[in-house]
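Work Package 4 report. The design task specified in the project plan requires that, given a folded chain encoded as structure tokens, an amino acid be chosen for each position. We show below one input record used in the internal validation round.
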């Protein structure tokens, strides 16, 4: 599905072009799912074979305008390798901090989805009240609100990501990571769903039924190894690609 024929025209490796196509597709999928905040929030992807380098959106483009060639290439020290385009300072700090702290992570997603931002302001956050919550429960980390313009905040986010792959950024939004874009996407989908059900439950005039601790433990024990597999989330990713391909395929330009 991914076009790797144009990498020579852009003077880059085939691997980087493939990374660019995957990340551009991820932005289009987020647009399809309604996970946008106009030009704000950001997804990033490490460049294969260049562990210090990553790709991020050209700041100012809407998610449905982003293409493989418009992405900005930079490194975790702040050096920019793209001739054109701009990047968001907070975006650089967040993603560089995580890539430094987690060399096993190749994709980072950060959203301001309203249900996620809503849960982020609540002290208790997500409770074990749904199957969707169990999907992320053992990977869930709460990160206290910090100064997004500060490099110290990037380091702090890196520390939080060492504790889990699904982050609720207090008073802010959601963040997920993965070894692949499909893993990060699947985690974000599950995290958003868990937030939606939590919000619904809090609006009802009845206390929710908590899932028994031993059931939570058993679910985690069986689910955790699956999430470490390279193909985790891949079927969902392929399905999402079919969805955006039916709309338009120009993200591969």
């Amino acid at each position: 599905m991914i076009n790797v024929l144009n990498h020579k025209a852009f003077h880059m490796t085939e691997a980087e072009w493939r990374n660019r196509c995957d990340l551009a597709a991820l932005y289009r999928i987020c647009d399809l799912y309604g996970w946008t905040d106009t030009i704000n929030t950001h997804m990033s992807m490490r460049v294969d074979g260049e562990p210090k380098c990553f790709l991020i959106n050209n700041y100012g483009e809407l998610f449905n305008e982003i293409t493989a060639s418009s992405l900005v290439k930079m490194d975790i020290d702040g050096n920019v390798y793209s001739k054109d385009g701009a990047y968001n300072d907070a975006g650089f700090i967040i993603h560089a901090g995580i890539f430094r702290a987690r060399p096993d992570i190749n994709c980072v997603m950060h959203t301001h989805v309203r249900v996620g931002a809503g849960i982020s302001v609540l002290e208790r956050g997500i409770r074990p009240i749904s199957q969707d919550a169990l999907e992320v429960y053992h990977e869930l980390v709460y990160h206290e609100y910090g100064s997004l313009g500060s490099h110290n905040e990037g380091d702090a986010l890196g520390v939080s990501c060492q504790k889990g792959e699904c982050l609720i950024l207090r008073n802010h939004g959601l963040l997920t990571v993965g070894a692949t874009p499909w893993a990060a996407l699947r985690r974000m989908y599950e995290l958003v769903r868990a937030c939606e059900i939590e919000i619904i439950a809090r609006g009802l005039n009845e206390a929710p039924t908590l899932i028994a601790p031993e059931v939570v433990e058993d679910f985690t024990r069986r689910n955790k190894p699956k999430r470490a597999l390279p193909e985790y989330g891949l079927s969902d990713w392929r399905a999402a690609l079919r969805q955006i391909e039916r709309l338009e395929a120009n993200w591969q330009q």
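Residues 1-5 have pLDDT under 50 and may be disordered. Validation will be extended to a larger panel in the next phase.
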